[in-house]
Design brief:
By secondary structure, the protein is mostly beta strands. It has a domain at 8-57: SH3 type barrels (Roll), CATH 2.30.30. The protein has one helix and five strands. A five-stranded antiparallel sheet has the order 4-3-2-1-5, with helices on one face. It is globular and about 35 Å long. Bound molecules: zinc ion (ZN). Zinc ion binds next to loops.
Length: 76
């Protein structure tokens, strides 16, 4: 799946603060995500992010959509 720093992602399971949304702060083998509800930061293996991701919203977008499998042509 294609993610980049600054993306918002929606997860299958809610954080204890009840938020489903996270901001991507770092990508790699492990992702650093910040909870949109409480601001807490966590490190999560990319495999888990991919497994639990319900939707993504890239910077400049206004709605969540299904994650692309690879980098879309219209993005740098
Ligand atoms: Zn939270």
């Amino acid at each position: 799946m294609y993610f980049e720093v600054g993306d918002k992602i929606k997860m299958k399971k809610a954080h204890p603060c009840k938020s489903f949304e996270w901001t991507v702060l770092r990508v790699g083998i492990d992702f650093r995500l910040q909870c949109s509800g409480c601001g807490r930061q966590v490190m999560i293996p990319r495999t888990l992010v991919e497994k639990n991701c319900r939707g993504v919203m890239h910077s400049g977008e206004t709605q969540f959509h299904r994650p692309e499998q690879k980098k879309p042509d219209n993005r740098e």
